[in-house]
Design brief:
extended, 79% helix, 96 residues, mainly alpha
C-alpha cells in the first residue's frame, strides 16, 4: 500500500493538487478499502468524488444539472439554491 500511496500522491501533485490533500484523500480511500467488497460502495465513492470534481471545476453547470434533476423535491431545491448563492452563482442561475 505504501507504494500505491506514493504513486497516487505523485500523480496528484503532477496534476497541481497539494501533496497533503492528495495524501489525505488516499488515507480516506485506504480507510474504506476493506469495505469495498460490493459494486454499490464503489459507485458511491466514485460518484462522491465525481460530484466534488464537477462542483469545484464546473460549478454553474453542476448546479444547473443538479437543480434540474431535483425539480420535484422542494426541500432539496431550497438547499441547492442556498449552495448556489454561497458559490456566487445565484444570479447566473436566475438569468439563464
Amino acid at each position: 500500500m505504501a507504494k500505491q500511496k506514493k504513486e497516487f500522491v505523485e500523480n496528484a501533485v503532477a496534476k497541481n493538487i497539494e501533496r497533503k490533500i492528495a495524501a489525505d484523500i488516499f488515507d480516506l480511500i485506504e480507510k474504506f478499502a476493506p469495505m469495498v467488497s460490493t459494486n454499490r460502495i464503489v459507485c458511491v465513492l466514485c460518484s462522491g468524488l465525481s460530484n466534488a470534481y464537477l462542483k469545484a471545476h464546473y460549478p454553474a453547470e453542476y448546479m444547473a444539472a443538479t437543480l434540474s434533476s431535483e425539480m420535484d423535491n422542494t426541500d432539496k431545491i431550497v438547499v441547492l439554491i442556498d449552495d448556489a448563492e454561497n458559490l456566487g452563482l445565484l444570479f447566473c442561475l436566475l438569468t439563464s
